[in-house]
């Protein structure tokens, strides 16, 4: 019995998707979903660029989950998956300029404008607790 590569990848990454959707983050899987949600998101919006890399699993996703336990959180929570939902990720990254593509990464937007961005190099070699602290500081600054 053989399994298609696409089916294999879908099965392999589902737990990585679940790490974020389990804590209430909405997946944006198409460019149209990105366009429907990001530009018009009144208030604040967190956008996590998820990925299969080790720093996403080891630090980014747990750090985001921890930050969302804070008493101040963004109004909207979104995620795109780099390397999987390629077109949606490319569309979301248009809102993160001038930052280059980075996976994983975390964007905080306010009324459609980027106000805080954490790039991959700021995630690697940092603990989930440090990433959560960075996010909660940004939440306190921009989400009140």
UniProtKB/TrEMBL annotation:
Question: What Pfam family does this protein match (any one)?
Answer: Disulph_isomer
**InterPro entries reported in the protein's UniProt record:** BrxB/BrxA
Q: Indicate the transmembrane segments per the record.
A: none
Q: Which PANTHER family match?
A: BACILLIREDOXIN BRXA, UPF0403 PROTEIN YQIW-RELATED
Q: What family does this chain come from, according to its entry?
A: Belongs to the bacilliredoxin family.
**What name does the UniProt record give this protein?**
BrxA/BrxB family bacilliredoxin
Species assigned in the record? Cohnella cellulosilytica
